[in-house]
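[agent] plan:
  1. take the single chain provided in the ticket
  2. run structure prediction with default settings
  3. attach structure tokens to the ticket
  4. add a short note for the reviewer (M.T.)
[agent] executing step 1
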Amino acid sequence: MYNKVILVGNLTRDIELRYSQNGSAIAKTAIATSRRFTLNGEKKEETCFVDITFFGRSGEVANQYLRKGSKILVEGRLSFEQWVDQTNGQKRSKHSVIVETMQMLDSRGEGGAQGGYNEYSEGGNSYGGGYDAPAPKPSYNQAPSYSKPAPVRMPENNLPEIDINEDEIPF
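[agent] step 2 finished; step 3 output follows
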């Protein structure tokens, strides 16, 4: 069986960061995703709210750089949670996403992704797309220097092609 979820959207609330008894970080928030479509000539919009959970260092990084409204891409697995409601004793349940990889999509200095940090993955498995400082412009009064090569991005394997139309995101 295969359980993989990829979501792009905006955080609906600030991150709640807690620590387990063994000191591991657990960060919880929610993401809102939407789609626009036309049905019988009428334009409609559908929004989906999904709870997400980060564990370990990725939770601490998310708490440090993300805020309500931050645009983010998360990749993870779907989880089914069940509990008994303390107020009336009824069984409750919900689906949520356990985040394995995240990519902050806000521009540098916008939203919560300040300082140019826009990607993180637990265990070092991450996508490309991180912030690279722009190379200085060459001066026309001196010969160009070739001592430091430009950063090389290796081709990424197993990455989904995601075509995002910014006009379709209502936030």
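[agent] step 4 note for reviewer: Residues 57-65 form the longest helix (9 residues).
[agent] ticket updated
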